[in-house]
Write a structure and sequence with these properties.
By secondary structure, this protein is α+β, with helices and mostly antiparallel strands. The protein contains 3 helices and 7 strands; from the N terminus they run αβββββββαα. Strands 1-2-3-6-7 form a 5-stranded antiparallel beta sheet. Strand 6 and strand 7 form a beta hairpin. It is globular and about 45 Å long. The two termini are 18 Å apart.
Length: 269
C-alpha cells in the first residue's frame, strides 16, 4: 500500500472483495481525483463501519510539532527506499495549514502518479510529518483524491484480511500482509478541518499501510516469518544497494533483525 505503490494497477491487492462499491482500479498506487483534495464523508457508501475498538497508534500529547523547516524541499520529490533511516523516523504533527502544506500535497500526488502509485506517505519522500495522500482509482483526474493530516485510529474490525501488498519504498517487492478489513479514523483535511470517516476494503488497506509509515513501521514487519523468508533476498539486495549508493553501512540489517514489536491495532506480530 504503502505506499501501497505501493500497489501496482494489476496488483492482486487491487482486486476488491465482492460487494465493494469502489470503481474499477487501474494499475497504480494512491492518486488524486478530479476535484482537488476531496475527503470521504462519514456516511460514504464506499465504507462499512468497523466492529471493534482500537487503541490509537500514538497519542497527540506525545507528538513533536512540525516546524516550517520540516516542509522545505526542492522539487521534484524522490521516493525514499529501504533501508534509508528517514523511513524509521517518527513523523511530526502538523499544526500549520498553509500554502507550504498544499504545495507538499501537490508534489506528493505528482510523484505518486509518476511512480504508478495509489498511495503515499510523507516519510516516503523524506519529509517526516503526519501526512498521507491516496486515491484507490490510481489515475490522475479520476476517482477521489484523499488527503489525511494527523490521522488517528478510533476503531478497527476484528476480521482480518490477507492481501498481497507492495510498496514504493521497496521496488519490485510484493508479499502477503494480514490487516483489519475496516477502520474508523479521525483526521484533518488539507485546510485543517477535522473529520471522521469509516474505511473498508482497499481504502482501509491503503490507509493502514500508510499509517504504519507515519509511525516508522514497514510492511515486512507485518508479515509472517514464512512470507518474510520469501522476500529476504530482495530486502538484503536493497540493503546492499543503499551501501553502494551512499558509501555508508546499512542502518539496519535483516539478518540482525529480531521480532520487532509493533503497536496493537493493525495485526499483532
Amino acid at each position: 500500500m504503502a505506499s501501497l505503490k505501493c500497489l501496482h494497477p494489476t496488483h492482486p491487492l487491487l482486486l476488491l472483495h465482492s460487494g465493494s462499491a469502489l470503481p474499477a482500479i487501474s494499475n497504480r498506487c494512491f492518486i488524486h481525483s478530479s476535484s482537488p483534495y476531496r475527503v470521504l464523508s462519514v456516511n460514504s457508501p464506499r465504507t462499512a463501519p468497523p466492529r471493534a475498538m482500537a487503541k490509537p497508534g500514538f497519542s497527540p500529547a506525545q507528538d513533536q510539532v512540525a516546524s516550517p523547516g520540516d516542509f522545505e524541499f526542492v522539487p521534484p520529490l524522490k521516493i525514499v527506499e529501504y533501508p534509508d533511516p528517514k523511513l524509521r523516523a517518527k513523523s511530526k504533527r502538523v499544526v500549520t495549514f498553509d500554502d507550504s502544506l498544499k504545495k507538499l500535497v501537490h508534489e506528493m500526488f505528482d510523484v505518486m502518479y509518476k511512480t504508478d502509485g495509489i498511495g503515499l506517505s510523507a516519510p516516503q519522500v523524506g519529509i517526516n510529518v503526519q501526512l498521507m495522500v491516496f486515491n484507490p482509482v490510481g489515475e490522475r483526474g479520476e476517482g477521489e483524491e484523499i488527503v489525511l493530516v494527523n490521522p488517528r485510529v478510533s476503531k478497527y474490525s476484528k476480521k482480518l484480511t490477507l492481501f498481497n501488498e507492495g510498496c514504493l519504498s521497496f521496488p519490485g517487492i510484493n508479499a502477503d500482509v494480514k490487516r483489519p478489513e475496516s477502520v474508523k479514523i479521525d483526521a484533518r483535511d488539507v485546510n485543517g478541518t477535522r473529520f471522521s470517516v469509516n474505511l473498508s476494503g482497499l481504502p482501509a488497506r491503503i490507509f493502514q499501510h500508510e499509517f504504519d509509515h507515519l509511525q516508522g513501521i514497514l510492511f515486512f514487519e507485518r508479515m509472517t516469518e514464512e512470507v518474510l523468508d520469501s522476500i529476504r533476498g530482495q530486502l538484503q539486495a536493497l540493503e546492499t544497494k543503499y551501501e553502494g549508493m551512499t558509501g555508508l553501512p546499512s542502518p539496519e540489517k535483516l539478518e540482525n533483525r529480531g521480532r520487532r514489536k509493533v503497536p496493537v491495532g493493525f495485526g499483532k506480530l
